[in-house]
Backbone:
């Protein structure tokens, strides 16, 4: 059995509570604790995780417009997706022959998302997370047209805005950032109201809405 | 091969049309009926905790598992077809109820023009106006013959809407069973703007109920909650009509009707010009032969066509000679929406699949094509189906050119709830060059050849999309958008971007066995005990959503089976 791997994160960074105000300013009012937290990794080793976390943080940075991939825990989300059925192409058609097509025929590569990440992380280099932000951006710009980058960008958005049960969007920071309330059961009393005015109910996760834990797809066989 | 006890009727495919036929036969005859569905069983309780964008709308939990079977695609016969290794431009369902479980529920009727498109266009403009290589043909059934079934289908589902506003709608023998849905902000803006230009906007006909409704079978369903999780999801309250909440509760009480899941039909077995049953693999990969007197195929457009080709029933279509029928007239649709940016919040997270406003002024031949250089039109609509964040985050004003990093992030956060879409679904005419056959290279999980799609757009679709695009921009400006992003020129057909799950053709119906597979009763021209249900029968794509028409056609065929065929089996045409 493989040795357990962890990613050590600053708790002030991950999952602080963001208050969303109607004037669109954001405030991080409370962090879970001042210490470090260790998150078990399912697919990456710590070095790979730090690299992916750094790249996701350039795609969706933490800056004056609010928290980003770091606070949402995007790397945790990506780690779980790659460890699960999606990462090994459980539901993709993978019969040979693999041939290059025209773009209109869609992705024809043989590489699974896991393999695409392994290669992409290699191209970013072992010291990527320790480079200055400008140097990180320059590296990412060089690979902007690659399949790896398109996956990384898409997965960063998924990690920002998917339900917290998938490992990202910690404390629902992503939803608070854009004023998305999550999967409420009913808007029947509101759908034809609030014309032109921001209606921003407090975000609720799926587990909070339905009142029990829901098994995410990445935990299925 | 394990031979099972014979039944009267076997139905391959447990979606809207197959289950509707099973319900009708179960209610009105004493026949034994077996429905074979290749996916898993589904029931309403499955959807209670299904409001998760990632697993359902992005990872496509309810869709066909293409690791086992997919289709291949190329633009022309000169190109190499490659498999759709992941779904994209359309989303076939899997499991009881099929795609009917995760549809939006938009249910317009087709215009009378649609059923006689070729005749009417030639009469009005002359045959010289049809596009080069065009293969459009009339259905062999007219709106007037289908109208009573449209009414029955609307009553089965409880369709919400309002007649009498759209000047182009066909005559209705009854009003909508339930009133229109509530009006959300963006559709309201569209409605006002369209009216100011002189168009005739009306509430989008909807299978998401506006109020509690009891249908003629006694099925009671509640009003929609506008939760924003319709398309790609099952409805957790049953407000959206789905086979699992409209048909299965009735079928469950019918002693002679059985639904077998994990039953993947591979061949229609036939002898001396008649179908004798089907073979299928069960969950243990045991091959079973299910004999039956009557074989009904209802496994969605692409698989209906594939089953005929694999079973060697009828002559495969050859695009070089124009001979053969099976596989001809493949059409999809032409998507052309534009993006509008507003300077106020829109609260677009709320909504329902068919909560919206549409107009028919630019559809079909509802406007004069005399001075224009194309045929066809588009249904123009603004929906409010619930803007979920993964799929909708990222749109920015045109001045922002980056797609990641601080500048983009700030603009995308500001724009997230200020983007409204103005949607157009254009007609896709049929052409001699667009068709389906069996792929020579790629195979499914059992080693059978995949279906191969050969399809591309032509100048007619590009001109149609460009014309509609200019009209959308005018409407967008009238809606007061701060930024109106004009549409890109229509590109070549691709299987990547979602266009809608409305694919037609392959086993088309028509007036002559020379140019169609089915007669106007959806009965195979040669094998008279074989019926094929679904959009594979449509000779070309009308812009409107097809489900209501499929249900109406299925009811018409059920009437013909019960009233005529069972008394004296043979050709109904």
Residues:
């Amino acid at each position: 059995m493989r040795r357990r791997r962890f990613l050590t994160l600053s708790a002030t960074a991950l999952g602080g509570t963001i208050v969303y105000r109607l004037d669109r300013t954001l405030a991080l009012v409370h962090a879970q604790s001042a210490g470090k937290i260790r998150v078990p990794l399912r697919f990456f080793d710590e070095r790979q995780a730090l690299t992916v976390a750094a790249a996701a943080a350039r795609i969706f940075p933490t800056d004056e417009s609010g928290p980003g991939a770091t606070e949402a825990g995007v790397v945790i989300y990506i780690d779980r997706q790659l460890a699960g059925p999606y990462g090994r192409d459980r539901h993709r058609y993978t019969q040979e022959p693999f041939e290059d097509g025209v773009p209109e025929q869609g992705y024809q590569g043989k590489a699974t998302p896991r393999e695409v990440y392994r290669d992409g992380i290699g191209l970013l280099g072992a010291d990527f997370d320790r480079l200055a932000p400008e140097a990180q951006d320059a590296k990412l710009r060089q690979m902007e047209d690659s399949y790896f980058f398109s996956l990384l960008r898409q997965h960063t958005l998924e990690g920002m805005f998917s339900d917290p049960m998938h490992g990202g969007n910690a404390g629902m920071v992503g939803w608070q950032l854009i004023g998305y309330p999550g999967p409420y059961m009913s808007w029947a009393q509101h759908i034809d109201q609030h014309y032109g005015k921001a209606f921003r109910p407090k975000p609720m996760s799926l587990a909070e809405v339905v009142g029990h834990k829901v098994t995410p797809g990445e935990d299925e066989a | 091969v394990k031979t099972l006890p014979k039944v009267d009727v076997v139905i391959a495919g447990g979606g809207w049309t197959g289950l509707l036929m099973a319900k009708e036969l179960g209610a009105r005859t004493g026949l034994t009926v077996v429905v074979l569905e290749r996916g898993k069983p589904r029931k309403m309780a499955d959807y209670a905790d299904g409001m998760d964008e990632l697993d359902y709308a992005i990872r496509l939990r309810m869709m066909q598992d293409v690791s086992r079977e997919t289709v291949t695609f190329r633009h022309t016969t000169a190109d190499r077809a490659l498999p759709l290794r992941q779904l994209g431009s359309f989303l076939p369902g899997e499991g009881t109820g099929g795609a009917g479980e995760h549809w939006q529920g938009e249910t317009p009727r087709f215009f009378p023009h649609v059923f006689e498109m070729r005749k009417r266009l030639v009469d009005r403009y002359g045959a010289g106006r049809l596009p080069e290589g065009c293969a459009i043909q009339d259905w062999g059934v007219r709106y007037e013959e289908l109208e009573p079934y449209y009414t029955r289908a609307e009553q089965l589902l409880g369709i919400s809407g309002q007649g009498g506003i759209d000047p182009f709608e066909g005559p209705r023998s009854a009003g909508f069973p339930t009133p229109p849905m509530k009006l959300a902000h963006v559709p309201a803006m569209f409605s006002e703007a369209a009216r100011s230009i002189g168009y005739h906007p009306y509430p989008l006909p909807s299978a998401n109920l506006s109020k509690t409704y009891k249908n003629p079978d006694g099925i009671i369903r509640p009003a929609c909650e506008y939760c924003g999780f319709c398309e790609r999801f099952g409805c957790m309250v049953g407000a959206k009509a789905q086979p699992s909440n409209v048909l299965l509760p009735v079928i469950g009480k019918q002693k002679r009707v059985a639904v077998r899941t994990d039953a993947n039909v591979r061949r229609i077995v036939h002898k001396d010009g008649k179908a004798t049953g089907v073979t299928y693999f069960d969950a243990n990969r045991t091959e079973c032969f299910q004999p039956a007197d009557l074989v009904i195929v209802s496994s969605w457009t692409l698989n209906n066509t594939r089953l005929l080709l694999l079973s060697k029933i009828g002559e495969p279509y050859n695009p070089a000679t124009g001979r053969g029928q099976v596989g001809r007239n493949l059409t999809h649709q032409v998507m052309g929406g534009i993006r509008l940016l507003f300077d106020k919040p829109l609260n677009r997270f709320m909504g329902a699949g068919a909560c919206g406003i549409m107009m028919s002024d630019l559809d079909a031949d509802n406007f004069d094509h005399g001075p224009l250089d194309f045929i066809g039109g588009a249904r123009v609509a603004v929906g409010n189906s619930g803007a979920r964040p993964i799929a909708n985050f990222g749109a920015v004003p045109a001045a922002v050119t980056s797609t990641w990093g601080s500048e983009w992030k700030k603009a995308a956060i500001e724009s997230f709830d200020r983007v409204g879409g103005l949607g157009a679904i254009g007609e896709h005419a049929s052409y001699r060059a667009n068709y389906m056959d069996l792929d020579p290279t790629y195979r499914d999980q059992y080693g059978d050849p995949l279906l191969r799609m050969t399809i591309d757009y032509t100048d007619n679709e590009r001109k149609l999309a460009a014309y509609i695009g200019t009209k959308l921009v005018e409407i967008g400006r009238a809606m007061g958008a701060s930024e109106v992003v004009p549409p890109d020129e229509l590109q070549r057909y691709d299987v990547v971007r979602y266009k809608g799950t409305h694919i037609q053709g392959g086993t088309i119906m028509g007036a002559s066995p020379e140019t169609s597979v089915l007669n106007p009763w959806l009965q195979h021209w040669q094998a008279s005990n074989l019926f094929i249900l679904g959009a594979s029968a449509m000779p070309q794509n009308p812009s409107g959503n097809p489900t209501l028409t499929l249900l109406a056609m299925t009811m018409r065929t059920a009437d013909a089976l019960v009233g005529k065929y069972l008394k004296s089996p043979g050709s109904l045409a």
Summary: Chain B touches chain A through 71 residues (CB under 8 Å).
